[in-house]
Design brief:
Radius of gyration of chain B: 13 Å
Number of strands of chain B: 11
Oligomer: heterodimer
Radius of gyration of chain A: 13 Å
Strand content of chain A: over 45%
Strand content of chain B: over 45%
Shape of chain B: globular
């Protein structure tokens, strides 16, 4: 199985400051079609998960530009340029290149 | 508008069974693979199972293999998860989601399953 390892698991951030979450896979996430299937989800308290970014760096419609994704192969990063109060929640990376599909442990973002 | 609505959750005793449903609307259900994901209390998201668009192939997470069965009825735009021999550790909110290449783009609101005596 492709093991997804996120860090940190807890991320206290000051409003307006940047935040960064790392996600590492035990296997390359480059699929046979040439695409890299790494997705970032946000789960706010009491809500369903919401997709923010897919294929490493493509933002979903309606996702603020302060969210960005980068990386390649096995190492990926989600960055929030300036954290806002509505960004509080748990962030997960997920790989879609290998069965079984697997999530990272989640990173809890909170405001200091 | 894409909508996914789960139902069928509730309280069940250990060893019991339950069938979850996910009613889909707003898109051509028969064209998409679908999946179930769960989140246990105090834990992270765990992928449960997936089924291809025509229902010909299905996949399961390691701890669900042999106990859970995913299925779909494309004539009813509905996804199912039959859960057998339930354990306390299966207690979770279960979400259905739509699969697009390598990702999930739409999620339901979730349904709570509690396994307890």
């Amino acid at each position: 199985d492709a093991v997804m390892t996120q860090s940190p698991l807890s991320l206290p951030v000051t409003l307006g400051q940047p935040a960064s979450i790392s996600c590492r896979s035990s296997q390359s996430l480059v699929y046979s079609d040439g695409n890299t299937y790494l997705t970032w989800f946000q789960q706010r308290p009491g809500q369903s998960p919401r997709r923010l970014i897919y294929q490493v760096s493509t933002r979903d419609s309606g996702v603020p530009e302060r969210f960005s994704g980068s990386g390649s192969g096995t190492d990926f990063t989600l960055k929030i340029s300036r954290v806002e109060a509505e960004d509080v929640g748990v962030y997960y990376c997920m790989q879609g290149a290998h069965w079984p599909l697997t999530f990272g442990q989640g990173t809890k973002v909170e405001i200091k | 508008e894409v909508q996914l609505v789960e139902s069928g959750g509730g309280l069940v005793q250990p060893g019991g069974c339950l069938r979850l449903s996910c009613a889909a609307s707003g898109f051509t259900f028969s064209s998409y693979a679908m999946t179930w994901v769960r989140r246990a209390p105090g834990k992270g998201l765990e992928w449960v199972s997936a089924i291809l668009a025509n229902g010909a192939n299905s996949y399961y997470g390691d701890s669900m293999q042999g106990r859970f069965i995913i299925s779909r009825d494309n004539s009813k735009n509905t996804l199912y998860l039959q859960m057998n021999n339930l354990r306390a550790e299966d207690t979770a909110i279960y979400y259905c989601a739509r699969i697009v290449p390598g990702s999930f783009d739409y999620w339901g609101q979730g349904i709570l399953v509690t396994v307890s005596s």
